[in-house]
Design goal:
Order of helices and strands: HHH
Number of helices: 3
Helix content: 25-40%
Number of strands: 0
Shape: globular
Strand content: under 5%
């Protein structure tokens, strides 16, 4: 079996945005997280999916999204509210 047999020919339609938004509740946070992780994948040359048989996507952004969907990537965002923004 060649390494391209389990690759995703559909591009970024996998993983599904609906499935990803269950993991990270905001498209903006999802895009930020995927971009950060994709840069690391490109720099390191490997993914966290290697222990699960490898990623289906060829490109780093797709691989990052697969990692997010698999629960391999965790990120915390700071709250953007201040004391002045809170209702009394």
């Amino acid at each position: 079996m060649s390494s391209n047999e389990n690759r995703n020919p559909e591009g970024l339609s996998y993983p599904s945005i609906d499935d990803l938004l269950v993991v990270i509740d905001s498209k903006y946070k999802l895009a930020y997280t995927a971009a950060k992780r994709a840069k690391l994948i490109k720099a390191e040359g490997c993914t966290l999916m290697d222990d699960l048989g490898g990623a289906k996507c060829d490109k780093p952004v797709g691989q990052a999204l697969e990692e997010i969907l698999a629960g391999k990537v965790h990120i915390e965002f700071e709250s953007n509210t201040s004391d002045n923004d809170k209702e009394e």
